[in-house]
Design a protein that fits this description.
Layout: H1 3-10, H2 29-35, E1 38-43, H3 51-61, E2 68-72, E3 78-82, H4 85-94, E4 97-99, E5 102-108, E6 120-128, H5 137-144, E7 149-154, E8 165-173, E9 181-186, E10 191-198, E11 215-218
Parallel strand pairs: 9-11
Antiparallel strand pairs: 1-3, 1-5, 2-3, 4-5, 6-8, 6-10, 7-8, 9-10
């Protein structure tokens, strides 16, 4: 059979009008359960990060090479299958992770992901410059939310022993502009320049824009989510 004839057959509608084939849940239940103990990864610069190198390098960085199986899903995504949820959560907690000087965004598998799946990366950010009278969980969250979703706040007003900077884990959109400074003004009238220092920051974007002129007003009636 010639290649030309075979190509013609591929584009014919043969079988398209046949009755729908029903596939029972039992045929794929096992793979669904297996996938739920896995992470999906998205290298932020696939031009510089070879996907096969990513699935080889990360399990070795995690010291889990014998307990994690990596595989390439398509041109943009990779998957890591874990033997235990303990290892999976440890990897997420110790992130973010870098291969070839670029971040790899990681997120736990979802059977039916939302449209914004793997569109952000969690980074620990040191927030500096908040005047002491205004250092509170509410004020910190109010400021941190301007960078992205607040995932975790490492601060307790009664037990924290240092106030020179506050550490917050923030989910930052991978296409968002990064901000390193922001002017704020409190309802009392006092102003301050807040600085943001991103821990483990390598090259998360190809263009960094500094913008310090925006003013954030922190008022008594502010709402938090």
């Amino acid at each position: 059979m010639s290649d030309e004839f075979w190509n013609d057959l591929q584009y014919m509608a043969l079988g398209r009008d046949d009755p729908e084939l029903f596939i029972p849940h039992v045929t794929y239940a096992g793979v669904l359960a297996r996938n739920r103990v896995s992470l999906i990864g998205r290298p932020l610069n696939p031009r510089e990060q070879d996907l096969r190198r990513v699935i080889y390098s990360l399990p070795h960085l995690w010291v889990l090479a014998s307990r994690v199986h990596g595989r390439v899903l398509d041109d943009s995504y990779v998957q890591f299958l874990f033997r235990s949820e303990v290892d999976l959560f440890a990897v997420l907690r110790r992130g973010p992770w870098v291969v070839d000087n670029w971040f790899v965004a990681l997120q736990r598998w979802e059977d039916f992901p939302e449209h914004d799946f793997l569109n952000s990366i969690d980074l620990w950010v040191q927030i500096r410059g908040i005047p002491l009278p205004y250092v509170s969980q509410e004020a910190i969250k109010f400021i941190a939310k301007t960078l992205g979703e607040v995932v975790e706040l490492d601060f307790n007003e009664e037990t924290t022993s240092q106030f020179s900077f506050i550490i917050v884990k923030i989910g930052i959109g991978i296409t968002d502009r990064m901000r390193f400074f922001r002017r704020v003004r409190f309802e009392s009238g006092e102003g301050a320049m807040i600085g943001f220092e991103y821990e483990k920051l390598k090259r998360i974007c190809t263009k960094i824009i500094f913008k310090g002129e925006s003013v954030l007003s922190v008022g008594k009636e502010s709402k938090f989510s």
